[in-house]
Specification:
about 260 residues; about 20% strand; Glutaredoxin; alpha+beta; two-stranded antiparallel ribbon; 8-stranded mixed sheet
């Protein structure tokens, strides 16, 4: 280790050694072995998550949405999967009424464009106990476009997020709703990216490389990806993008093989 003096203090920070480009690359390759193992373990965990048992939701819940009253089924917006994050923005929360909880606000700041989730038959919704007028004001101030509803009953207490933030995942089969997963506490710090959200859903990323139960929907990797303003329901993959992605995937596989 080497020592570097911390600016403005007499303390020193023990930093790693400074090495040549060749030694740096060797160290990176050594760590890469563990990182790839971590990626494979994460994929295996997501595959196990897709096989978790489901719990049917038999109780009726009511929310307030910008358009008026909404049921839990309404929150799916016609899609198969619903990711519902319980955010704390209400009287009694630090920051009220100007801000939501600082931690929940950091989660909201990290949320990727929801169009990519929507393209995988998945809807993301935030839920708090604040009235809709306050939620609309907060979203405008913070620049958030996430669908956000008001909890009006025991939903949060019933689903383990009454006293702490958390993300519940649901699947819709016609009129029947099933709870499939819950992640909270430190697990929520990984949320925000499209891939991390899809990895906690029962259908996953819906790509053929995934280990999913038989009959699960899957479409070719890369081909469904699009600009967030260009997704079209039922549209075939763009031919030019298919060519580009095929060439990129081939080059990547050849490099990996070497």
């Amino acid at each position: 280790m080497t020592s570097v003096e911390k600016a403005g203090t007499n303390a020193t920070m023990q930093t790693p050694p400074v090495v040549s480009p060749q030694d740096w690359e060797a160290a990176r390759q050594q760590l890469l072995v563990k990182e790839k193992a971590h990626t494979r373990a994460r994929d295996a965990l997501a595959a196990e998550r897709r096989r978790m048992p489901w719990m049917e939701v038999g109780k009726t819940y009511a929310f307030e949405a910008p358009s008026g009253k909404a049921s839990l089924l309404d929150l799916f917006q016609g899609r198969k999967q619903l990711i519902l994050y319980r955010a704390f923005f209400e009287p009694g929360v630090f920051g009220w009424p100007d801000h939501a909880c600082r931690g929940c606000s950091m989660v909201a700041d990290q949320v990727a464009h929801v169009a990519h989730l929507n393209a995988r038959d998945t809807t993301l919704v935030f839920a708090s106990r604040a009235p809709q007028a306050d939620i609309a004001r907060l979203k405008t101030r913070m620049g958030w476009n996430i669908p956000w509803v008001t909890i009006t009953d025991s939903f949060d207490a019933d689903f383990g997020v009454g006293e702490w933030h958390g993300t519940n995942v649901f699947y819709c089969d016609g009129e029947r709703i099933f709870r499939t997963y819950l992640i909270k506490s430190r697990g929520d710090e990984q949320m925000g990216g499209t891939w991390n959200y899809l990895d906690i859903t029962p259908l996953g990323r819906q790509e053929p490389w995934e280990d999913s139960p038989a009959g699960y929907p899957q479409s070719p990797t890369y081909k469904w990806w699009n600009w967030n303003d260009s997704y079209a329901e039922g549209a075939a993959p763009d031919k030019k993008w298919v060519e580009v992605s095929d060439a990129g995937e081939k080059a990547l596989r050849e490099k990996s093989a070497q």
